[in-house]
Amino acid sequence: MVKIDKIYTRGGDKGLTSLGDGARVSKTAPRVEAYGDVDEVNAVIGLVRLHVDAAGDVLLSRIQNDLFDLGADLCTPEKENPKYPPLRIVQEQVDRLEQEIDRLNAELSPLKSFILPGGSAASAYLHLARTVCRRAERRMIALADSEPVNPVAIAYINRLSDFLFVLGRFLNNKGKEDILWVPGANR
User: Fold this and answer.
1) Of 14, 36, 78, 106, whose CB neighbour count within 10 A is largest?
2) What tens-digit pLDDT sequence spans the chain (187 residues)?
3) Residue 3, in any domain of the structure
């Protein structure tokens, strides 16, 4: 279990931070950028939770915990024979997201247009979370171009953006209150 006694350490005052393996890197390092974006997705999901019922809150609470797992995964570079086994995203977490997507999507009408972000407050925040999630995914892919990244973690973040989209539609009265894009409507 994590124990945090002191909030400030002054260790980052010169622009460096510690990774999960103890290595010191720039706060602008690709790995730090990636888990920073994951943290931002998590914060936006916290806003969504203010606008959902108890069932939605339980679902999003689990995802927030998964996002901390993802952050832990990303902040610990892959090494052979680590001193302690690092926390990694596992396939079961991806599978659970897929099951939730399928369950929610089964109650939605097929799309006939792209969706504009909005509708209910929860849906609007979910669209924001989805866009930040896509940025986190791009950062993770960029990181994977230069050093090893857990491929299941990349699958998780990709699936999460799909889940956020489907949940946003579901919370817009099962898609009935989605705001549809009308191509060229304002020409």
Assistant:
1) 36
2) 667 777 787 878 888 888 888 889 989 999 999 999 999 999 999 999 999 999 999 999 999 999 999 999 999 998 877 788 899 999 999 999 999 999 999 999 998 899 999 999 999 999 999 999 999 999 999 999 999 999 999 999 999 999 999 999 999 999 999 999 999 999 9
3) no
Question: In 5-129, at which residue ranges do the beta strands (DSSP E only) sit?
Answer: 16-18, 24-26, 115-116
Q: Is position 137 within any domain?
A: yes
Structure tokens at 8: 């400030």
| 25 assigned to some structural domain | yes
Residue 157 located in a structural domain = yes
Domain that holds residue 146: 16-180
